[in-house]
Amino acid sequence: MLSESLGKTMIDVPIDAGTQLYADFDGDKLVKILFTPGVTDFVLPLNETALVSRLEKEMDGGQVKALNVFLNSKSKFLLSRQSDSLGRLMLVSDDIPAPELPKNVISTLNFKPTKDSLQVVTYSSLPFEVVPEQADGFKLTFRKAQFQPSLLKKYDVSKLGTKIETVTAYNDKDGNAYLVFAGAENPALSVLRKGDETYVLVKTGKSAQPAAMADVDKAASDDPVYKESEIQELNTLFPGMKENYTGEKISIDLQNASVEQVLRLISEISGYNLILDDDISGNISLKLVDIPWDQALDLVLLQKNLGMVIKGNIMRIASATKLEAERAQLQKAREAAIQAQESMRNLAPLKTEYIQINYNTAAEFEGKVKTLLTPNRGTVSSDPRTNILIVTDTEETLDRIDSFIKKLDRAERQVMIEARLVYATDEFQRSLGVKWGTTYQTETTPNLPNEQWRGTFTSTGLNAINTANGITLGGTVGKFLGEDLFALDASLQLGEQKNLVKTISSPRVLTLNNNRAEIQQGTKLATATESESGGTTTEYEEAVLKISVLPQITPDNKLILDLDISDDSPKSDGRDIDTKSTKTKMMVSDRETIVIGGVLKTTETSEKSQIPGLGDVPGLGWLFKNKYDTKNKAELLIFIQPRIL
What is the Cα–Cα distance from 482 to 439, expressed in whole angstroms? Predict the structure, then answer.
């Protein structure tokens, strides 16, 4: 049946009980009704309407699988199931202008001082979004809202005791409203919506923190605040009602009125196109004063066990049982479509594709691709010699795998990491004392008969003092005893020695992004240990300079470095090892040099050597002893510079 009434065209189609209805619209002048499964053949009506030019059937054997509806002009449509044996397509021409939805108008604008803040109070039937902006001055944007013409002016608020001097209100052509604050710089902001009033608290104090809700006007904060944790069903007239409504306020006083007429009245106020199902009937009595229209609509729907579906600016109202049944049928249809797609995938032919891996190994991709294969059908393997991935699956899955590999198999950028390990020492030595020595020499008279030897004996038994390099003043005392010569030497040691040493290590390493690299250089110290069998074994302990780094390049071309740097060096005795190391994780910019460690170690030693007994004589003891002072300072500095290549 094809009929037209009140600007609407309706097409009623006979269907079978188990048939699902679908609609397909090409966006121009063709609406196709699809039947799954097909329905029994039916006769097309011969009449035409101003909107429908003709109807055509698509047959599958002896059943109709689709009905093509050709239109004379573009239109909106609604496809519904009226009963188990009847489906309906409703058409409304686009040439019929849709009623304009209500605009969000701000009708009241007040300013109140609150401590060191300015409170802006607005009144509007619909909520809006408040967005702060900071350009030449501080500005608030009220999106999708407009000030009434009487509010568009400049307000002097300098006498309210805040830093704000003036506030200017204006609208733009895009449907937004603005408030510009003169004298405020980066204030803290708090927004609270209570009913139809919106409270905006602009705090301009120096120690500006987000204002608490208690700072908002006391008249608003005295009301109980709704908490999401509360049980909503305990605070509503009917189960299923919302907590807050935002529609334009209306008043209705009707007694024994038709439900259809009440719904039409609310539709006119809301601005929505209305579609009522045929099973809507009955009367209702109600008296509502100054409540939002959407709350009034909910009250009528819940009272009469009706449901509502909104698509765009079209509102359809039907019984809640019918809408629930349609949702269940739609869910079943979706599940059937998914099962059909799954069956098609299981019946699709298999193909084998050889995918070349360029920047990774095929073995690495093998495990990742397995998660994309069709269950129980797809297979994947890798050839390490050619680095090729061999995948067997349906064409759809192969396309998905190919796209997956193209996104991941790409050249990674490289990172050069350069490090400087600076080990600086400042060593000071000073010695003060007397160095004594003896020389004893005997010899025979030259050319005496039967005397062909000469003996020399040098004793340093008194020279027990170690001194630093410095100034030496020496003297000699000689005494002749017959042919024997006994010489006694005294050397005064007075001096200082300063050593400044810098040991610089410069390791560098090149690696790929997200790949750890390690480089080390050094020596192995051999130590002899006794084995369990009683023999001697040689073990080696490493003393190396090592740098280990894992770089990660961020999308903004910064680097996250996971570093492990150590510098171990053997001491002069060949047995002990000096260790210097650091482990850290940090973020640096490209080609930025940063120091990541500094360790300062100071060592002071004082040694004294003397001749027993003589060195303890007061005053004269300095002639027979030597004092040795040493002060060492050692500092380790580590510098890092990464470079993205």
Answer: 16
- Cis-peptide, bond into residue 132, ω within 30° of zero: no
Intra-chain end-to-end CA distance of the chain, in Å: 73
Residue 268's SS3 state is helix
Q: Is 141 helix (H, G, I), strand (E, B) or coil?
A: strand
Residue type, 28: D
Would you call 433 exposed, middle or buried from its count of C-beta atoms within 10 A (0-12, 13-18, 19+)?
Answer: buried
CA distance 43 to 57: 10
The DSSP bridge partners found for residue 117 are 114, 203
Report the run of H or E that residue 322 belongs to, with start and end.
Answer: helix 320-347
Task: Tell me the three state secondary structure of residue 342.
Answer: helix
Which helix (DSSP H) or strand (DSSP E) does residue 338 occupy? helix 320-347
CB burial readout 150-167, b (16+ within 10 A) else e: ebeeebebeeeebbbeeb
List pLDDT tens digits, range 469-488: 455 555 555 544 444 445 55
The CA distance from 310 to 298, in Å, is 13
Give 616's contacts (C-beta < 8 A, 6+ positions apart): 610
* Listed range (12-26, 354-368, 477-491) with the worst mean pLDDT: 477-491
pLDDT range class, residue 381, cuts 50, 70, 90: very high
H/E element, 263: helix 259-270
Query: Cα angle vertex 462, ends 461, 467, to 5°?
Result: 110
pLDDT per residue as tens digits for the range 549-570: 899 999 888 999 998 888 777 7
Question: Which residues fall within 8 angstroms of residue 348, CB to CB, at 6 or more apart?
Answer: 394, 395, 396
- Which residues, in sequence order, are bridge partners of residue 40? 63
Do 160 and 181 touch, CB atoms closer than 8 A?
no
- The amino acid that residue 605 corresponds to is T
CA-closest candidate to residue 388, choices 365, 352, 351, 357: 357
Predicted TM-score (pTM) above 0.70:
no
Which phi and psi (to 5°) does residue 568 adopt?
A: -105, 130
Q: Decide: helix, strand or coil at residue 360.
A: coil
pLDDT of residue 59: 85
pLDDT tens-digit series, residues 329-353? 888 888 888 888 877 777 788 899 9
Distance in angstroms (rounded) separating the CA atoms of residues 211 and 199 = 12
Among the ranges given (169-178, 248-257, 629-638), the one the predictor scored with the smallest mean pLDDT: 629-638
Is omega for the bond preceding 37 within 30 degrees of 0, making it cis?
A: yes
3 state SS for 184-246? CCCCEEEEEEECCEEEEEEECCCCCCCCCHHHCCHHHHCCCCCCCCCCHHHHCCCCCCCCCCC
Strands (DSSP E) along 259-313, which ranges?
Answer: 273-276, 283-292, 306-311
Provide the token pair at 91: 């058409």
Q: Tell me how far apart the alpha carbons of residues 265 and 532 are, in angstroms, rounded to a whole number.
A: 103
